[in-house]
Design brief:
2 domains, globular, Tyrosyl-Transfer RNA Synthetase, mainly alpha, binds adenosine monophosphate, Rossmann fold, binds tryptophan
Length: about 325
């Protein structure tokens, strides 16, 4: 059976970009494959942070994931820092990773340009990511488009390690993308991202969502309600495609092209479609928040399961390498 692994940084609550780009696939895949999902706190410490804040964001991410449908009874959900094999294999992989490949990573270039001092941990971020996946010998990695480059590097690292020791031990992972592999922010300018402040939170109240949707950028050709639009270039239409039933999507497109509706009408319908999916998620999140011990138990069980698989893989790899 194919194994699935994916990770997400403990950035607090999920936003609809993470949700549509990756987490919805996690929820699907956990029913079909043996799945490992990790909140990657060792990745999160590669930029400056406050310990108390990291703790809160980690908890909020766990709540968001389980509320969104990641079910600890169907998959292995755990905190990366609870399974020390991740950092141990990352060290091993550092010894086969070309520096030039690390320096070429787009996310490294973006993030390092925003930091006052450059840390080796930020450069080596994708090496830890490769180790995360390799420990579980996963072939499928459900992620958004921004992670494709990291996965290419992960394949390269695994290939180099296998070649160096003349074995086919680690598995080359492949990205598994959703139809909405890249959600734009509501400013329509860049991808939806916490650091850009252009997100819709998965747990936002309807009134908050509406305050964000109302001024959101649409097709710039629609200055007046009577100006016809092109749905395919409109970010709101793309979000409709992710949340609204096919008949509604069709109707929305037709009303946009014929200038039957104004953009506000279209956004109201979107709000309703979003609420149908997000309302129950918000309710589950509130329940989970009220029972923190259940979540802690689930994460501890997850860490035990993950550690069992990870330590077996690491033990074999070390033996192949002539280590203890
Ligand atoms: P991160 O919050 O950066 O840890 O991302 C978690 C997951 O969400 C990764 O698989 C990303 O590729 C995905 N993701 C993040 N932002 C977006 C976005 N705007 N559109 C689609 N997927 C995204
Ligand atoms: N780098 C990923 C992100 O920012 C998170 C991540 C860490 C990950 N390890 C992973 C994703 C392993 C998939 C597989 O979204």
């Amino acid at each position: 059976m194919a194994r699935v692994f994916s990770g997400i940084q403990p950035s607090g609550e999920l936003h609809i970009g993470n949700y549509l780009g990756a987490i919805r696939n996690w929820v699907e895949l956990q029913h079909k494959y043996e799945s490992f999902f990790s909140i990657v706190d060792y990745h999160a410490i590669t930029v400056s942070y406050e310990p108390a804040d990291l703790r809160r964001r980690t908890r909020d991410m766990a709540i968001s994931l389980v509320a969104a449908g990641v079910d600890p009874a169907r998959c292995t959900l755990f905190l990366q820092s609870a399974v020390s094999e991740h950092t141990e294999l990352a060290w091993i992989f550092n010894t086969v990773t070309p520096l030039g490949e690390l320096e070429r990573q787009t996310q490294y270039k973006d993030k390092s340009s925003r930091q006052e001092s450059l840390l080796a941990g930020l450069l080596n971020y994708p090496v830890l990511q490769a180790a995360d996946i390799a420990l579980y010998k996963s072939d499928l990695v459900p992620v958004g488009e921004d992670q494709v480059q990291h996965l290419e590097l992960a394949r390269e690292i695994v290939r180099r390690w296998n070649t160096k020791f003349s074995v086919e031990f680690f598995v080359e992972p492949k990205p598994f993308l959703t139809p909405t592999r890249r959600i734009m922010g509501l400013d329509g300018r860049a991808k939806m991202s916490k650091s850009l402040g252009n997100t819709v939170g998965l747990l936002d109240e309807p009134s908050v969502i509406w305050e964000k949707l109302r001024p959101a950028v649409t097709d710039p050709a629609r200055v007046r309600k009577t100006d016809p639009g092109t749905p395919e270039i409109c970010n709101i239409y793309h979000i409709h495609q992710a949340f609204s039933p096919p008949e509604t999507v069709e109707h929305v497109a037709q009303q946009c092209r014929s200038a039957g509706w104004g953009c506000i009408d279209c956004k109201r319908v979107l709000q309703d479609s979003m609420e149908a999916e997000l309302g129950p998620i918000r309710a589950r999140a509130a329940e989970l928040r009220a029972t923190p011990e259940l979540l802690d138990d689930a994460l501890s069980t997850g860490a035990v399961n993950a550690k069992r698989v990870a330590s077996a893989t690491l033990g074999e790899a070390k033996q192949i390498m002539g280590l203890r």
